[in-house]
Amino acid sequence: xxxxxxxVTVYILGxxxxxxxxxxxxxxxxxxxFQLKRGxxxxxxxxxxxxxxxxxxGEYKLKxxxxxxxxxxxxxxxxxxxxxxxxxxxxxxxxLKPDVSTFVELYPSVFRCVSCNTCTKICPQxxxxxxxxxxxxxxxxxSAAQTxxxxxxxxxCALRCPAEIVQFNVGMLAQRLYGxxxxxxxxxxxxxxxxxxxxxxxxxxxxxKVLPKEELVKEYYERDIKIT
Amino acid sequence: MENDKTETVKIPYFPGCTLKTxxxxxxxxxxxxxxxxxxxxxELPKWNCCGTVSSLAxxxxxxxxxxxRDFIRVEEMNNTGLVDNEYxxxxxxxxxxxxxxxxxxxxxxxxxxxxxxxxxxxLEKDYEGKVDVxxxxxxxxxMGFDTIAERVVRSLDGLKIAPYYGCLLLRxxxxxxxxxxxxxxxxxxxxxxxxSPVMNWEAKSRCCGSYHTVDNKAIVIKSVKGIIENAREFxxxxxxxxxxxxxxxxxxxxxxxxKEFPDFxxxxxxxxxxxxxxxxxxxxxxxxxxxxxxxxxxxxxxSGLYE
Lengths: 228, 307
Known about the structure:
The complex is a heterodimer of chains A (228) and B (307). Chain A is of the alpha+beta class and 228 residues long. Chain A has ten helices and five strands; from the N terminus they run ββαβββααααααααα. In chain B, the strands form two sheets. Chain B has a four-stranded parallel β-sheet. In chain B, α2 (24-36) packs across α12 and α10 crosses α11 (244-260). The interface between A and B is medium-sized, with 18 and 17 residues.
């Protein structure tokens, strides 16, 4: 190897390793010989599986982030969170009301929020987590659903919350209630679902299923997309 | 409607959760009544829970973050032009009022505590201690009950109304809006609307049972029964309050009382802004009388105040 890479020191579970500068925490872990079985997923910042807690050199603050999206710095101390054993209420969406009473019933800890904003500070998605919890307290489920929309459920908010709220599962419930009861209905979607149920596309699907790969690829790229 | 050109005053307004969820009619009647009186209540952008119950522990500053965050919103409103040099923070709910005001006293009288809270909330601008937590009764009083009397279009003539203070408007003394032992502000409010305040009844500041209503209804049932009976003894036809929780306990728990005591004679309960709105000529679509548990309309009909 002719090219030299600058190396930085990181501490993983208290042990020190030299890893290439500019690596993500996830790359640093694997470079250091850790085989990741839990706490790893899409590696693209979408799945939320790789929540990680770290502290930078000389800093007192514990920070959180996604291992696949956070770049290491020299002297960084790292601990992965492979799984967040958070409370997840069981419910039948069909039986719920899209209002505050549902949250009182299923996630009463929401109402213990002290507005400290610790959840927002740690969120790797830059979501205003406290704001959507407060939206629920105010009964604004639609706003809670929209504000929490980018949540990938890494669980860091729940780990940090002094009021023991499970924000990410609460947000999921808000989104489900919004989708089922509050979001404006799309007539196009309903028409299309009815068409599918009536079997309008059966023959086309059957034809595509037996098509050789090359032809399928060709048809895919030549397809006509109508945007109205 | 006379077209009077009095200038509208814009005041920051903190609604609290109850007025946004289970008691929307209380808020509506307040907003529309105050509009008629030349006050625009401008809701705080992105407000959060008031904190609900004020923490008295000296080392528990965490519980004061919520109120201070709301105070920062009020200062921001002044900096962004939503209101103009108006640091009064208007509340309707007695509980919000009490919790907010206790925190405000705590942090403005203890620079160290304020510094700790500000440092913790480093993403926010520092709270500068400018906010004046104000209950709507205080605002009405400062506008002058005489002035309000002049705006009354439907006088509550002869309606015998018991003013119920509960605990949070009066105690602790440092927070209270009136003399804790012998308050008169709600009596004066009632008089300004043309009603007859029930004077010197014993239960006017007795506890309604508060949040025991969630897990120990029996305590609330006992307390509310005593309060209603005492009001009736003093000749009241109805009770008013400014606390949504007192209103819920006094009103909705009467159903439970009737189940247990079939002879119990129920009494309608109003939120104070419902009667204010009624006197200022607002209709049922704003007052939301349908949402009151003990239907107040028969009483209003008897008194010629409702068609």
